[in-house]
Write a structure and sequence with these properties.
468 residues, alpha+beta, 2-methylcitrate dehydratase PrpD, 60s Ribosomal Protein L30, Chain: A, four-stranded mixed β-sheet
Length: 468
């Protein structure tokens, strides 16, 4: 027992010099990727709806809103930047948990770094800790958290954001423990949107980001909470997951960083769909294949719950439905004809797709999903396979064990920058993307975090009309 206390003590004592170089390098890539998601995500109509509510009803002067440049209180800035970050299913994923740590860790840490007037080195350390805490809690409850209908980022995210705030406010272990304890009372999130849609999922990282920041601010003010919030009889793991492994919370803490298992998303849809895209790309690298040549595609996945998560929707009613529909997303890729980051399932593709396009709907109906009976893909961190039957009688089979972006098939530094540029080049002034890349590459040397935050603001003349 005492797992919550152990995690709090570790976070309170974490200093950047003890963090391995490869962990810091991964964290920098994740920060860059999430900055790109924030800047591009602010252009979406649902993001701007949330932004307009916050602008009308909130105030503050501490922390910067990406894209627009307003100043809000740190919890409100964390909320809106996180909403931008997660706005279009482009932010990173820890697939084996599964959760989306970056869309919570990065906005919360940046907002609190501005509030605390911290430097770049402290920001980077806080991001590392926020990732680690979220992933460990989600992993301890995996796969039962999501199987019971909880969306892991909303459940575990408050803890990560609280730890980021605690580190940037320089809490000791006791105050950090209270920040975690308070964060637990904010845990929430249901995945009914995968069945019947709705746009509230767009703030499933914003809710925990703001909650965790508030938890840290409340702990700073002396509010306390239950110190066994994770492992207790009425604690998070038992109440939310039911079945869990508390050893995963602390095993290898300080030596094994689960952040290294985190994945970047080259495509703007549910990560469980990505391996099918890569398999299709591989097929079309070998031989031409147009949508009109396809009689049927069977996509083999690894479990009934995953099949339910991405295979339930054939004809989506909205963009979010399209992003959680394997059949429709595969139809988009087939008709686009491209590959990789620019293969038809990117950030700018989904907001402009017509979900009622008869060609796409007809092709989506040809895509079937099934559980592989030979257990070829037995765990959630493995890939998938496709079998294509063509109109001229060919049968083409392709297996992708790990989709692009997973740690077993990682995006290179250049590929991460390519994705970042694909997100921001349409809206940032010339030269600004490179400035942000260089700032993140040298984040430990930044003394005034406001200089970094200002780079994420788009000049009014470059702002575009809300898309989607």
């Amino acid at each position: 027992m005492n797992e919550t206390r152990t995690l709090a003590a570790w976070a309170a004592g974490l200093k950047l010099p003890v963090v391995p170089d490869n962990v810091k390098e991964h964290a920098r890539r994740f920060i860059l990727d999430n900055f790109g998601c924030q800047i591009a995500g602010a252009t979406l109509s649902w993001s701007q709806a949330y932004y307009n509510v916050m602008r009308r009803t909130r105030s503050g002067t501490h922390s910067t809103v990406a894209y627009f440049g307003d100043k809000l209180s740190p919890d409100d800035a964390a909320f809106i930047n996180s909403a931008f970050n997660h706005a279009n299913e482009t932010d990173d994923t820890h697939l084996k948990s599964p959760t989306h740590p970056g869309g919570i860790a990065v906005p919360a840490a940046l907002a609190m770094a501005e509030y605390a007037q911290a430097d770049g080195a402290r920001l980077l350390a806080a991001v590392v800790a926020a990732y680690e805490i979220q992933i460990r809690i989600a992993w301890a409850c995996s796969p039962f958290l999501i199987y019971r209908g909880h969306h892991p980022p909303v459940g575990v995210g408050p803890f990560g954001a609280a730890v980021a705030g605690a580190m940037l406010l320089d809490f000791d272990a006791g105050k950090t423990l209270n920040a975690l304890a308070i964060a637990g009372s904010h845990s929430a999130g249901l995945i009914e949107y995968t069945k019947t849609g709705g746009s509230v999922k767009r703030i499933h990282s914003a809710i925990p980001a703001a909650a965790g920041v508030r938890a840290a601010l409340f702990a700073e003010a002396g509010i306390t909470g239950p110190q066994s919030i994770l492992e207790g009889e009425k604690g998070f793991c038992k109440v939310f997951a039911g079945d869990y492994d508390l050893n995963r919370l602390t095993d290898g803490l300080g030596s094994h960083y689960h952040l290294l298992d985190n994945a970047l998303k080259p495509y703007s849809c549910c990560h469980l769909i990505h391996a099918a895209f890569d398999a299709l790309d591989n097929v079309r690298d070998r031989e031409p294949l147009a949508a009109e040549q396809v009689r049927q595609i069977t996509v083999y996945t690894n479990s009934e719950p995953i099949l339910s998560h991405i295979g339930s929707i054939i004809e989506p009613g909205d963009i979010l439905g399209a992003q959680f529909s394997l059949p429709f997303s595969m139809a988009m890729r087939l008709h686009h004809g491209g590959r990789g980051v620019r293969g038809g399932n990117g950030f700018w593709d989904y907001p402009h797709v017509n979900v009622k396009d008869p060609r796409l709907v007809a092709t989506a109906r040809k895509v079937k999903c099934a559980v592989a009976k030979d257990a070829e893909w037995a765990s959630v961190d493995k890939g998938t396979g496709i079998e294509i039957e063509t109109t001229d009688g060919r049968r083409i089979r392709e297996i992708v064990a790990y989709s692009k972006g997973l740690p077993e098939n990682p995006m290179s530094a250049d590929e991460v920058r390519e994705k970042f540029r694909s997100l921001v080049d349409p809206i940032l002034p010339p030269g600004r993307p490179q400035q942000i890349i260089e700032a993140v590459d040298n984040i430990e040397k930044i003394k005034n975090i406001d200089d970094l935050a200002r780079l994420l603001v788009v000049p009014p003349a470059k702002r575009i009309k809300a898309v989607a």
